[in-house]
Amino acid sequence: MEHHRITTSNVSRETFEATKDLYASHKDLLEEYIDQLFWWNDRINLVSRDVSRETIENHLHHSLLISQLSPFISEKNIIDAGTGGGLPGIPLAITHPGKSFILNDIVTKKCLAVKQMVRHLGLDNITIVDRTVANLQYDTPFLLISKHAFKVNDLYSMTSHLPWTAMVLYKGLEFQGELAGIEPPLSIERYDLTEGSDFYKGKALVIIRR
Ligand SMILES: C[S@@+](CC[C@H](N)C(=O)[O-])C[C@H]1O[C@@H](n2cnc3c(N)ncnc32)[C@H](O)[C@@H]1O
After folding, report:
1. Who's near 79: CB < 8 A, 6+ residues apart?
2. GO molecular function, one example (predicted)?
3. Structure confidence at residue 122 (pLDDT)
4. By Cβ atoms counted within 10 A, which residue in 64, 139, 179, 200 is the most buried?
């Protein structure tokens, strides 16, 4: 794994503040999404059962953080692999109506719930695809994003056939062991989120380019 080039930066206060502003300017729809997530979570398991509203709000802020990073800003087509209940894809689609999102999960009932939420929220920039990410077919270059769903080497090998321009992954700070077995040298930027708040301690956003 030494052949990969890894750099580390901190995410600035301004970036966290800009994310809060983005949340505030789409508050009504984001709060509606949280209501939907709780409603569906009572029926099927999307997030942990006893999770508080405050924690879910933190997950939405966390989801929106990547909107401040250049790979997200410059790409119109985005695939969220292992989206579960729609994180980070739904908050990003709400706040970026000009971008197109594919939300992917291997579990069909999760995808059905996400489809209902998307319909309820009136979002027309989301397509849902229920299969393993390894079987996705897509010809247009896109940004691959994923929050706490895969080890880096697993996601890398499952998507090697796809034309992703970069991956942005929501990881813990210590993800380097997950690079084992990846042969081509990667350029990796690790953004340490620890400065954000207690919620972000030990968390990182990881940008990977091949
Ligand atoms: C820990 S959950 C994370 C969900 C969401 N990203 C979040 O942050 O709340 C991981 C998700 O990855 C999905 N998953 C696991 N293997 C997958 C695969 N091969 N292809 C697509 N989705 C997969 C699971 O069904 C699950 O919903």
Report:
1. 101, 102, 104, 136, 138, 142, 143, 144, 145, 164
2. rRNA (guanine-N7-)-methyltransferase activity
3. 98
4. 64
Does 172 appear as a known binding residue? no
Domain ranges across the chain: 13-166
Annotation-wise, does 87 bind a ligand? Answer: yes
104-120 burial code (b ≥16 CB/10 A, e <16): bbeeeebbebbbebbee
- Using CB distances shorter than 6 Å, the residues near ligand 1 are 47, 81-85, 87, 104-107, 110, 132-134, 147-149
| Complex-level ipTM | 0.99
Of 90, 68, 62, 65, nearest to 78 (Cα)? 90
Contact between 159 and 197 under an 8 Å Cβ cutoff? The reply is: no
Q: In CATH, what class is 13-166?
A: alpha beta
pLDDT less than 50: residues of the chain: none
Distance CA 93, CA 120 (A): 14
CA-nearest residue, atom 9 of ligand 1: 87
Kindly report, residue by residue over 120-169, the tens digit of the pLDDT: 999 999 999 999 999 999 999 999 999 999 999 999 999 999 999 999 99
Structure tokens at 172: 């813990």
Query: What's the 15 CA to ligand 1 centre distance in angstroms?
Result: 27
Residue nearest to atom 24 of ligand 1 (CA): 82
**pLDDT reported for residue 1:** 56
